C-alpha cells in the first residue's frame, strides 16, 4: 500500500504539491488523474525517493522508499521509457537491472516474453519505436516481481492491441493482490481499467472516489426523448414535462434532453398529453465529461480557436457551437466550422465615399511592345544661295598675310591670274596647276 500524508513540495517560489494526502490500496487499479502541471509526476517521484518532500511524508508498505531493503524487489516503476542506454540491447538492459537487484537471469527471458519483445531482445534499444520502448519499460518494472507497481502513461505510443494487453495486465496484477497506481490522460481507457480514482489539480486533492461514484457526483444523467416531426408535438410535450417538474433542453438534432424525471414518469406524461414517442432512452455522462466538469477551474494551459474565428467560447452541456457562439437552437442543423475559410466580407456602407479605381498592377509576364518612333517632319525648302563673285575679285580683296609664329600657319599665296578669256572659277574652288607646255620643257 502507498500512503501520503500532508505531502508538499516547493521548487523555489513555486509550489508543485500542497498538503496532499491519499491512500493507494492493494487489490484494485487506482487511476491518478489531473491536468498538465498539476503535480502528478512530482508526486510519483517523491513516492520513489527521487525528490525529497518539503513537508509531509509518503510511505510504501509502511516505509519510505529509500529505507526499503532491496527496493526493486518491492516496487516496480515506469516513469520514463527513454531512460535506457541506446547502445544496449533489450536483453542487456534488463540483465544489468537484474544483476543490480539480485534477480535471477532466467527472469529476464520471462519478462521479455510477457511484453512481447523476445524476438527483438538482441536489437539495440535506440532503434526501438515509441511503443517498443514502452514495452521495455514495463518489462523493467515487472523484473523484480514486485508487490507495488507505478506506471506513468504506460499506453503512450502503443497500438490498439498493445493498449488492450496493458489493460488486461493491470487488472490481472491487481487481481493478484498487488498495488497498481497508474497515471494517464486517456479518460476512455481509464474508465475501462481503473477501479478507483485520485484526482489532483494545481497540487491539491480534488477527488478520491471510485469511478462510478466520481461520475455520479460530477455529471447529470438525462433521458433522451424523440417525437415525430408533427406540428407542435415537441412543444406540447415540453410544456407537459415542465409542469411535472422536469427540465427540458433542446438538442442539435431536434431531440429533447430531460432531467429531473424518471423514464416511466416521462412515458406516462407523454401518453397523457397524446404525444407519440419515437425514442425514450437513458443516458449517463462519461468519465471524460465528469473529469472536465470537475477540473475546468484547475487547468493552467488553455488553447483558443483559430484567430480568424475569435477565442473559444465555453459551450453548455449538450450544446453545439454555432457561428456566433452558444448552443444551437432545437431543430436547427449543425454545420461544423470551416477552419480554412477566410474572414467574412465587410458589410456594405451606403454612406461611404466611392473609392477611385485602383491602377492595375503591371503584368511581369507581358511581352514588351516596341517604342513608337515619331512621325518624320517635312523638310522645308532651302532658299536659293547668292552666287559668289569671281575668285579673282575675292583674292584682290584679301591682302597677303604673313605666317603667324604662334599658330605656324603658312602665308597664303595668291593664285596666278588667269588668262584673258578663261572662264571664272567657282567660288571657293581651288585653282589647279597648269600643265607645262613642250616649249617650257625644252
Description:
Helix 2 crosses helix 3 (106-115), helix 3 packs across helix 4 and helix 7 crosses helix 10. Helix 5 (160-175) links the parallel strand 6 and strand 7 (179-183). 26% of the residues lie in helices and 17% in strands. The strands form three sheets. It has a six-stranded mixed beta sheet with strand order 5-6-7-3-8-9, with helices on both faces. It starts with a strand and ends with a helix. The chain has twelve helices and 13 strands. The radius of gyration is 51 Å and the shape is globular. It is an alpha/beta fold and 442 residues long. Among the domains are: 2-216, Rossmann fold; 220-283, YebC, transcriptional regulation domain (Alpha-Beta Plaits, 2-Layer Sandwich). The protein has helices at residues 40-47, 90-101, 106-115, 130-142, 160-175, 187-193, 211-217, 233-243, 263-272, 287-295, 391-397, 438-441; strands at residues 2-11, 14-24, 29-33, 55-60, 75-78, 148-152, 179-183, 196-201, 204-210, 222-226, 247-250, 256-259, 279-283.
Labels describing this entry:
12 helices; alpha/beta; Alpha-Beta Plaits; 4-stranded antiparallel β-sheet; 17% strand; 13 strands; Rossmann fold; 442 residues
Produce a short descriptive summary.
This protein is of the alpha/beta class. It has helices at 40-47, 90-101, 106-115, 130-142, 160-175, 187-193, 211-217, 233-243, 263-272, 287-295, 391-397, 438-441; strands spanning 2-11, 14-24, 29-33, 55-60, 75-78, 148-152, 179-183, 196-201, 204-210, 222-226, 247-250, 256-259, 279-283.
Amino acid at each position: 500500500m502507498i500512503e501520503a500524508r500532508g505531502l508538499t513540495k516547493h521548487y523555489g517560489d513555486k509550489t508543485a504539491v500542497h498538503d496532499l494526502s491519499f491512500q493507494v490500496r492493494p487489490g484494485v487499479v487506482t487511476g491518478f488523474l489531473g491536468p498538465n502541471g498539476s503535480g502528478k509526476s512530482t508526486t510519483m517521484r517523491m513516492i520513489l525517493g527521487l525528490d525529497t518532500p518539503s513537508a509531509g511524508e509518503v510511505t510504501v508498505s509502511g516505509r519510505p522508499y529509500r529505507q526499503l531493503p532491496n527496493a526493486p524487489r518491492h516496487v516496480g516503476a515506469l516513469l520514463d521509457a527513454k531512460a535506457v542506454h541506446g547502445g544496449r540491447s533489450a536483453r542487456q538492459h534488463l540483465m544489468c537491472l537484474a544483476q543490480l537487484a539480485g534477480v535471477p537471469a532466467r527472469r529476464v527471458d520471462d519478462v521479455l516474453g510477457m511484453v512481447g519483445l523476445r524476438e527483438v531482445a538482441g536489437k539495440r534499444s535506440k532503434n526501438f519505436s515509441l511503443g517498443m520502448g514502452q514495452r521495455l519499460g514495463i518489462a523493467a518494472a515487472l523484473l523484480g516481481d514486485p508487490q507495488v507497481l507505478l506506471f506513468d502513461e504506460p499506453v503512450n505510443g502503443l497500438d490498439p492491441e498493445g493498449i488492450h494487453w496493458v489493460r488486461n495486465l493491470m487488472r490481472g496484477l491487481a487481481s493478484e493482490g498487488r498495488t497498481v497506481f497508474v497515471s494517464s490522460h486517456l479518460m476512455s481507457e481509464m474508465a475501462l481499467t481503473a477501479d478507483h480514482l485520485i484526482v489532483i489539480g494545481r497540487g491539491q486533492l480534488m477527488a478520491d472516489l471510485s469511478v462510478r461514484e466520481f461520475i455520479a457526483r460530477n455529471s447529470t444523467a438525462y433521458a433522451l426523448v424523440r417525437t415525430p416531426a408533427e406540428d407542435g408535438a415537441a412543444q406540447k410535450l415540453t410544456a407537459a414535462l415542465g409542469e411535472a417538474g422536469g427540465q427540458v433542453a433542446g438538442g442539435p438534432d431536434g431531440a429533447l434532453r430531460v432531467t429531473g424525471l424518471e423514464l416511466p414518469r416521462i412515458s406516462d406524461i407523454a401518453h397523457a398529453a397524446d404525444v407519440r414517442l419515437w425514442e425514450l432512452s437513458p443516458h449517463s455522462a462519461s468519465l471524460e465529461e465528469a473529469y472536465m466538469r470537475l477540473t475546468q477551474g484547475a487547468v493552467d494551459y488553455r488553447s483558443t480557436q483559430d484567430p480568424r474565428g475569435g477565442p473559444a467560447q465555453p459551450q453548455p452541456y449538450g450544446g453545439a457551437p454555432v457561428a456566433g457562439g452558444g448552443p444551437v437552437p432545437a431543430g436547427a442543423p449543425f454545420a461544423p466550422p470551416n477552419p480554412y475559410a477566410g474572414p467574412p466580407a465587410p458589410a456594405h456602407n451606403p454612406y461611404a465615399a466611392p473609392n477611385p479605381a485602383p491602377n492595375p498592377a503591371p503584368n511581369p509576364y507581358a511581352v514588351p511592345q516596341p517604342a513608337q518612333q515619331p512621325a518624320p517632319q517635312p523638310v522645308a525648302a532651302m532658299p536659293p544661295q547668292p552666287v559668289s563673285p569671281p575668285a579673282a575679285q575675292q583674292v584682290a580683296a584679301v591682302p597677303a598675310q604673313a605666317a603667324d609664329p604662334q599658330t605656324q600657319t603658312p602665308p597664303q599665296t595668291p593664285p596666278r591670274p588667269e588668262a584673258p578669256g578663261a572662264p571664272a572659277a567657282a567660288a571657293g574652288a581651288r585653282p589647279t596647276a597648269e600643265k607645262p607646255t613642250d616649249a617650257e620643257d625644252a
